[in-house]
User: Which sequence fits this backbone?
């Protein structure tokens, strides 16, 4: 993988934005990765994080992203 300075700076900005409004930004960033990944990278992410991918799909297909398991 080749990480350009532009991608590096963009990643820093995403992390700072995630920290402003979210206590644990990891899953927010992971969701964003799922959404913008190309087919090869999406397959890799699905392999590493199958439960998180399935939950994203369930929320995507649920009205307002709300699942029956939400409080």
Assistant:
């Amino acid at each position: 993988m080749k990480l350009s300075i532009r991608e590096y700076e963009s990643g820093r900005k995403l992390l700072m934005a995630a920290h402003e409004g979210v206590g644990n930004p990891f899953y927010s960033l992971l969701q964003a990765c799922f959404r913008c990944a190309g087919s090869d990278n999406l397959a890799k992410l699905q392999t590493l994080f199958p439960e998180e991918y399935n939950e994203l799909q369930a929320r995507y297909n649920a009205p307002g992203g709300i699942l029956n398991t939400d409080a």
In short: The chain has a mean pLDDT of 87. Residues 5-65 form one domain.
